[in-house]
Structure formats: C-alpha cells, structure tokens
Design goal:
The chain is α+β, with helices and mostly antiparallel strands. It has a domain of 110 residues. 46% of the residues lie in helices and 10% in strands. It is built from 13 helices and 10 strands. Strands 2, 3, 4, 5, 6, 7, 8 and 9 form an 8-stranded antiparallel sheet that branches. Strands 1-10 form a two-stranded antiparallel ribbon. β7 and β8 form a beta hairpin. The longest helix has 23 residues. The two termini are 22 Å apart.
C-alpha cells in the first residue's frame, strides 16, 4: 500500500476489443517441451510475481475454456498444481477476459508458468517472500538515481519536465511521497543505498529533503512564479516542514517560511482553483495553527463536501490533512468529509467487482495514472478503517499494473508505449 500511495503518473492503454476473436497460438498443443511454445495473450499474470500468502489470480480470455489449468515448473515443465477455471459473475456480457483461476492456495516458492489447453501459456513468474519489499526498495532508489548533478547539488529530480511544470511535478511527487510516509512510516528504511543511508533518518525523507532544497533554491532564484506553481510549492514545503519539524528543525523552519511566502503569492491569484487553496491551507493550518488558513480550508472543504461529484485530488488531500490535524477543527465537517471519502472507496470497490481484472476502470481505456489515483484513495481510506475487501482491491490493482493486463507488460515498459492512448485526467493536477 505504501508503494501505491507513493506512485505518481503513469500511462494508459486501450484494452483488447471484446468482440474481436482471441488470436490462436501458433501451436495450440505446444508445451514447454516444445521450445517454440508461444506466450499467449489469453493468459495474464503479474510478471513481478506473488508472495506466498498473498492473493494469486490468473485472467483468461477464450470462448470455450477447459475446466482446468495447470501451473508448471519453469525449468522442468513438471505440473505442480492444477486449478479450476471460473467465469466472472458480475462483468458485462461480451467481456473478452471474463474467466479466471484462483491459485492463492499454492504457496510453494519457485519459478513457474501457467498453461491452459488450446489457449497457450503465461509469461514466467515467481512466488517468493518479500518480492514487494524488494520492488519497493528499488522504486525508492530510483529517485536517488534521478538526482541532477553530484550529491549535495540541489538540481532536482530529472524527469524531463522543466520550468514551472517541473516545479509543479516535483512538488506533487514530493507531496505524495510524504503522504505515503505519513501513513506508513514503518516501511521506509534507512538502507536503500543512497548517499545519506545510515544517518538514522528514513531515506525517503532525505530524498524529499533534496527536493525541498531544490524548491527553496528555485524560489530564491525565480520568486515570480505563477500562483498555481506557488500554491503547489506551499503545500509540499508545509507538509515536509510538519513531518521533519522534530528531526531537522533548521530546514523545516526554512520550508515553513518559504511555504508562507508562496502561500501569499498563490492565494491572491484568481487563476488558482479553490481545491488547491484548500489543500495548501490545510497543510499550513496543521503546521502553524493560523486562523487565516483555517477559515479558507473550512470554507472550500465545506463546498467540496456538498457537491455530488467525486473529490478532486487536491480536495481529497486537503480533507485528509484536515482530518489528521490536532488543532481545533469542525467535527461535523470532519464526519462529512470522512463519509464522502468512504463512499468513494466503496464506489471503487464496486466498480472493481464489475471488471474482469477486478480494477476500477471508469473509462474505455485503463489509464495507469487514473488507476494509481483510485488505488491511492482506497489505500488511504483502508488505513483509517481496515477492510479485507479493500486489501484485495489494492492487490488486484498492483497485479494489473505489473502485467496482469491485456498488454501483458508492466506499466512503464517499452511495449506499453506503442499501445497506449494518453489522455488528460479530470483532476486539477497536471499529467
């Protein structure tokens, strides 16, 4: 869950046409003993793998599937497990990937592939302890590898985005990383292998400190930025100052001063949306207790609570910070925002039940950025009120992003890029 709350942007792709016949394997009877056996687009699994005690599901496409499937040892080809194919009950009629096999009870560590007669086989996958942890550590290390210049030079994370857009992207990425740390501090270690590892401060805070220093420098070098850019900076720096006020008081103080200066610049800009103002105001109110922040946070969050449509990202983040402050708050507003967030989490779960891959797909294309956004929300709500079904929904979204999808490639790999349809999100955050 920490990994998914920390994730940012992604790609999108168009799922396979449900009315188009599935391509048949070159040799339907082939097995691993035949080196020409193709990997089939009819058999989708998580290519990262599965933990022994976690949920494990394979998704099938085919009109007349056999009653069973087998798991075979990757090296020997020996059958180690036989499972039952099942039809999804809640998916729309005509859905291509409408069958699945649950092999959660198979827990033996090793390397395997899944085979189903006449329809082919899956990519290889592993069952192993701590594979999520290993992937999580590599993801955290990737931020360090994106740093500009040598250690100590605050050049920002290099993502290819420059100017104000780069500052907004860094602020948003930093904000979501800090939110993840705030919710799941115990999973972040001090041994990912960055230059600061071993200083008894979680490496994720060191990374965000690097980004904060860059934002501070940018604010001094080019103080006249747009109000939108300033308000993003204010929210991110205020959140960082709150979380590090007891471990790095000097930098936290600098971030507080810069956040308040950015707030003054951004709040008066008529082009800044109310939801962004609410997010930044909630962070600054929690940090300072200032009534000027409280008034605007409550005014805009009250408006958000009354509207029928889902919360924007900024409204969601602002409401979660408002709920978590120890300063005086409006209890009725807290209850209302919590009920709204819980309602959205339940909607995500319901939409996932109706999807063959058990994910929340709101449009005709499965947008990885959108999927991460939905998963982040249900992770946050699940942190507040633990729900077993929500855990499963979260796992299914992760499996989907790691290759259990029609493209059969993890999000971000090259093959996605030839099959994706990029689109802007409805959210106010830039994509």
């Amino acid at each position: 869950m920490a990994l998914l709350t920390a994730c940012g942007r992604g790609a999108a792709y168009a799922p396979a046409d449900a009315n188009r016949p599935a391509p048949a394997p070159e040799n339907p009877e082939a097995s691993r003993e035949d080196e020409a056996a193709p990997v089939s687009p009819n058999v989708c699994i998580d290519r990262l793998g599965y933990e022994p005690d976690g949920s494990k599901t394979v998704i099938f496409r085919g009109a007349e599937l056999p009653d069973t499937f087998t798991i075979r040892d990757k090296e020997s080809g020996a059958v180690v497990y036989t499972g039952v194919t099942q039809k999804r009950k809640n998916v729309p009629e005509g859905t291509a990937y409408d069958s699945y096999g649950d092999f959660s009870d198979f827990t033996v560590p090793g390397s395997y592939y899944i085979q189903i007669a006449r329809y082919g086989e899956s990519y290889p996958f592993v069952i192993a302890e701590n594979i999520y942890r290993s992937f999580f550590q590599r993801a955290c290390l990737r931020l360090y590898e994106m740093r500009s210049g040598t250690t100590g030079e605050a050049g920002g994370w290099q993502s290819g985005t420059t100017g104000e857009a780069g500052e907004i992207e860094t602020s948003l990425c930093m904000y979501q990383l800090l939110l993840s740390y705030e919710l799941f501090p115990d999973v972040y270690s001090d041994d990912t292998g960055i230059a600061e590892s071993g200083n008894e401060i979680p490496d994720i805070l060191d990374e965000c400190g690097y980004a904060a220093a860059w934002l501070l420098n940018r604010g001094q070098e080019q103080p006249e930025r747009s109000g939108v850019c300033a308000i993003y900076r204010a929210a991110a720096l205020a959140k960082y100052a709150w979380l590090t006020r007891n471990t790095d008081a000097e930098l936290a103080g600098e971030c507080l001063n810069a956040a308040e200066a950015a707030w003054k610049q951004g709040e008066k800009d008529l082009f800044v949306s109310d939801d962004l103002v609410a997010m930044a105001a909630a962070e600054l109110y929690r940090l300072t207790g200032g009534s000027q922040y409280l008034g605007l946070a409550e005014e805009y969050l009250t408006n958000s609570a009354q509207k029928a449509e889902p919360l924007s990202d900024a409204e969601f983040f602002g409401s979660m910070t408002y709920l978590n402050t120890k300063n005086k708050v409006d209890r009725e507003l807290c209850d209302t925002m919590m009920r709204k967030a819980m309602g959205e989490a339940e909607e995500i779960a319901e939409l996932s039940r109706q999807n063959p891959f058990q994910i929340c797909e709101r449009t005709e294309t499965a947008d990885a950025a959108g999927l991460l956004r939905e998963t982040l929300r249900i992770c946050v709500v699940n942190h507040i009120i633990t729900n077993h079904e929500y855990n499963t929904v979260i796992e299914n979204h992760f499996h989907y992003l790691m290759g259990c999808n029609p493209v059969m490639f993890p999000c971000g790999m090259r093959r996605w890029r030839g099959a994706v349809l990029y689109r802007r999100s409805r959210c106010s955050f830039p994509q």
